[in-house]
User: What shape does this take?
Amino acid sequence: MNAQVIKCLSSECLVEQNGKEFSVSLRGKLKKEPQSVLVGDYVMLGENNSIIESVLPRKNRLIRPFVANVDQIVVVASEEPKSDLFVIDQIIIGAAEQNLPVLLVVNKMDISSKEFASSISSDYSKVVSKIVEVSAKTGENINELKKLLKGKLSVLVGESGVGKSSLINAIFCSEKQEIGNLSQKISRGKNTTRSNQIFACEDGIKIIDSPGFSSLSLGVIDPQELARKFIDFNPYTKQCAYTSCNHISSDGCAVKKAVQCGKISKNRYDRYCKLYQKYSDEWQNRYKRKKEKNNENFTINNSRRLQKRTKAK
Ligand code: GDP
Ligand code: ZN
Assistant: This one.
């Protein structure tokens, strides 16, 4: 019977099997290899469930947070503080790069305007797999959210203050049979690390909270590839007059036409233009930056040599 790794400590792991959580150690060969076992890994246990014998093949692996076998990304947004949709667009692009579906949770509906919720819906309904409007405070739609999380390992992302911790509490505190002393784990102090630990409960909801993921860095992206990552543009891009159309400055652009007719959200298109500019600058500077880095190293080396020479004198 396989178990799933919930948390990695220095020489042992916390695993979950059939709703029970327990510590196991690692077989010697696994201890030697760095990152041989990741949070989210399914493992084969041996010696009366006391040791990890081997790690089963991974479905996928994220770098930040370092976690394996993720099923979906759950992005949390709120009106107060107002989520930066530019950040959300980039998280969605990052998820698409990993072939991961995105569930968009609009939290704090008890204090949010209908306009905010409908603007989120018009921007993202064609882009994410599902949008759900909830309130961690009143419990509105938390059951609906739980259905969407059931049986999956979800990575929770979103800017600070949108209510990620509150949602974890709302989802798990309604569970009578929590694994271990979950509530204690959630009411962690400010300085305890929240990342790289899965919160799990018996009905198969598994969540990994990832504060770092909100500032997801995608690396250098070719701006010409950007439109393909805006999947709501896809039905129109083939109809552009030029195959190399960047959907910003060219004539005969079907994407721009779709924006004018209201078929593509104007706000989302504006953020595309902003992202295109950002990636164009980064793309043009990608070699320059590499060169600068090399020069920096050269300068450091030289100044060290100079210091050595001065000392020698
Ligand atoms: P995190 O930084 O994303 O983990 O956000 P927190 O869970 O710490 O929540 C930030 C603040 O928003 C706290 O003061 C929460 O009490 C509040 N909050 C969270 N969810 C809701 C909600 O659904 N409604 C309201 N009114 N406040 C909420
Ligand atoms: Zn175009």
